Amino acid sequence: MQPKEVNRILQTLKPYVQLKKQHIKLGLKIIDKLSKVSDANSFLELCRMVDSFKILNYSTNRTITSEVVEKFLKENNLLTPVETSSVKDEILSIKRKNNTPVAFPARKG
Questions:
Q1: Residues 26, 50: Cα–Cα separation, whole Å
Q2: DSSP character for 99?
Q3: In the 8-state DSSP scheme, what is residue 18?
Q4: Domain residues of the chain, as ranges?
Q5: Is the dihedral of CA 25, 13, 50, 35 positive or negative?
Q6: Alpha-carbon separation of residue 18 from 3, 21, 22 (angstroms)
Q7: Could you give the CA distance from residue 24 to residue 46 in angstroms, rounded to a whole number?
């Protein structure tokens, strides 16, 4: 399925969704950023945004996380230093709105 189609579906569902509003908002942001991925750093930032679904869902089953992607990119010298606080700020904002505790995994490497 193309990102344009996913965007259309999420936009269609958005007015009707009550319990997963933050999921739709995050999904739309991810789709928007997907077309702007131009290098390893922007790809890694997108991976971190996807990881934030784990926080919204309390999911622990995913095995390919942004940490796994970051490790691969570093091992292959594809990553340059970049500040990622914007992603953490986004997650904190979502969690504060939901009055949910926030825990970020420790960065490895």
A1: 8
A2: T
A3: S
A4: 3-97
A5: negative
A6: 23, 6, 9
A7: 15
Q: Which two tokens stand for residue 33?
A: 């950023």
SS3 content of the chain, % helix, strand, coil (to 5): 65, 0, 35
Helix, strand or coil, per DSSP, at residue 78:
coil
Q: Distance between CA 19 and CA 89 in Å, rounded?
A: 22
| Protein fold of 3-97 | Endonuclease I-creI (3.10.28)
Report which residue type is found at 3: P
Task: pLDDT tens for the chain, 109 residues: list them.
Answer: 788 999 999 999 999 988 888 899 999 999 999 988 999 999 999 999 988 887 787 666 777 788 888 888 888 888 776 555 566 666 666 666 766 555 555 555 4
- Rounded to 5 degrees, what are φ and ψ at 46? -65, -40
pTM of the prediction?
0.58
